[in-house]
Design a protein that fits this description.
mainly alpha
Length: 284
């Protein structure tokens, strides 16, 4: 692997550009470059990227700036195939299919709707990764770090992210498989071990197991690969992408145009009974 040359410090405040009159690096990117008959991706000719790399290696290169080694490739590929099971219990699928039912001309709006419904409540790995990266960075004894995690995230969210599932009460199948395979690939490191410690602490405190969920396992593996929480959150949403596209295609071809929620399927009105606006009083 080759090292990238040092880049000059970026200016981030608009006032710096206005005061200097120098706008030369106002739009600046280290990702790709296109010129007459030549395209570079992270410095590599695009022809070589297309010919010599698989999709996982390309994605890693674009996001991290360097080529992955064999272990990193295997772990990243493992992560990218863990979210393809999305079904009707997923808010992202519901959002995507509702949009597709109303806009069957293109899958793009429905894909956007599905991705927009991928957040902290619907299982994003961003918060678990943030929690784990923060906890590992404290460099505290494990018991102290876990106690601090419980306190801080209890105050922030009222819960610890990355654990628990509404359907899988003792073990989350995707998380179990991801953790097992990551261990085999030497990819369950400091952040994974921290998540294990949090899970064990919760089990002892609650008297029952609250299992690591997929978001937690993804956050741990991606944090151990060196990704930042912001990118990890995006990867969680993109991991749903193929499943969402499959649902969208199915909805457009075989679904019901303009989906509604009738009373029989759970719609319930609990507002005031019928009433009427009183006549306006006229002036004397």
């Amino acid at each position: 692997m080759t090292s990238t040359p040092a880049r000059r410090a970026r200016r981030h405040h608009i006032g710096e550009f206005v005061a200097s009159g120098d706008w030369s690096d106002y739009w600046s990117t280290a990702i790709s470059r296109a010129g007459q008959g030549r395209i570079l991706v992270r410095g590599y000719p695009v022809e070589e990227v297309i010919e010599r790399l698989n999709h996982t290696e390309v994605a890693y290169l674009v996001l991290r700036g360097e080529l992955p080694d064999a272990r990193q490739t295997a772990l990243f590929d493992l992560v990218l195939r863990c979210g393809v099971d999305q079904q009707f219990v997923s808010a992202a699928v519901g959002a995507a299919r509702f949009t597709a039912s109303a806009f069957p001309d293109s899958p793009i709006p429905a894909l956007a709707s599905g991705l927009l419904a991928s957040g902290s409540v619907t299982g994003s790995p961003q918060e678990p990764a943030q929690m784990l990266i923060e906890a590992v960075a404290w460099q505290l004894p494990e018991a102290e770090a876990v106690a601090r995690v419980m306190q801080l995230w209890g105050e922030r969210r009222g819960r610890v992210p990355g654990l628990g599932h509404p359907m899988h009460k003792t073990a989350e199948p995707r998380a179990v498989t991801l953790r097992r395979l990551a261990l085999e690939l030497d990819g369950w490191r400091a952040h994974g071990r921290m998540l294990d410690a949090v899970e064990a602490h919760l089990a002892a405190a609650k008297g029952r197991k609250i299992p690591i969920n997929l978001a937690g396992a993804l956050g741990a593996v991606l944090a151990d690969l060196g990704f930042e929480p912001l990118v990890i959150g995006g990867l969680g949403a993109l991991g749903y992408g193929m499943a969402l596209l499959a649902h969208i295609s199915e909805e457009i071809h075989d679904g019901v145009p303009l989906r509604i929620i009738p009373d029989a399927l759970g719609a319930h009105y609990d507002g005031p009974e019928e009433r009427h606006i009183p006549p306006r009083r006229t002036g004397a």
